[in-house]
Design goal:
Blueprint: E1 13-15, E2 26-28, E3 44-51, E4 61-66, H1 71-77, E5 79-87, H2 89-110, H3 116-137, E6 145-146, E7 148-154, E8 157-163, E9 167-172, E10 175-178, H4 185-191, H5 197-200, E11 228-229, E12 235-239, H6 241-244, H7 249-258, H8 261-274, E13 281-288
Antiparallel strand pairs: 1-2, 3-13, 4-5, 5-6, 5-7, 7-8, 8-11, 9-10, 9-12, 12-13
The protein binds manganese (II) ion (MN).
Residues 85, 240-242, 279-280 line the site of manganese (II) ion (MN).
Amino acid sequence: MWRPAQLLAFGTKVSRVRGNATKGGEEPFVNPLQRGVMEIRPGIEMASLSDVGCQRANNEDATSYWEPKTDEEFQRKGRLAVVADGMGGYEGGQEASRLAVETIEDIYDQESANDPRDALLKGFRAAHERIREYADAHPEFQGMGTTCTALALNDLHLYFAHVGDSRLYLVRGDTILRLTRDHSYVGRLVESGVLRSEEAERHPQRHILTAALGAGADVAADSPTSPLALENGDVLILCTDGLWSLVQEPEILSVVSSRDASSACAELVKLARQRSGPDNITVQILRVATNGTARH
Ligand SMILES: [Mn+2]
């Protein structure tokens, strides 16, 4: 039943830039959240890549993929994928995104009830509290917080929860559909018709969030009340704004439709870096391949 996750892109070489220098030494990128060798059960093709970008000294994004240890648990809980984009000074930002990903994973793991959506929302609430407690204990990190987009995939049932401006897309056939709405100031302007989405992508205030884990008294995550039914060949793309602000939806569609998940992650990150990569860039791709022959 188990096989090594040879499709993981965590080991891909990317250049890491230190300070404000535009050239840095090449060194392997190692995701700090990677814990030992990850194994993936059949049914999907998965890859993820997180890159510091071309202008930042630190990567405040975090991403993870998780499966239960036992097949019995896997039957009930399926798989969990999370992307988070921290803020609040680089140390605060790194800590916030790390706490979010780890807490959501832990809660999802511990949750015994058979309700993935409920487990995700519990994880979001717990992560929100943990980040707030951390900021209270470390006043230098006041203002730390993080976006978070998490999905649970049980067989072909997709559950997800979302806060902030990271995104989840679904590619089915020739169409790409954004499943999350941005909790951002410009996101509101787009929804109310004041801005076109192309204008929003370059808007000087596009980084202002209206909701984040760790910020404010309560967390109000978006989460559909019933699961979305996926089909064989569907592709899910989780990403941070460092990707979607530079790589447009038709390009994401084209890249994931013509490449395997690992190569698509590398290509998407490359496109963002070619466009100056001012922010950290993180993408995770899951392609549903229930019969092992999902088209590329
Ligand atoms: Mn970002």
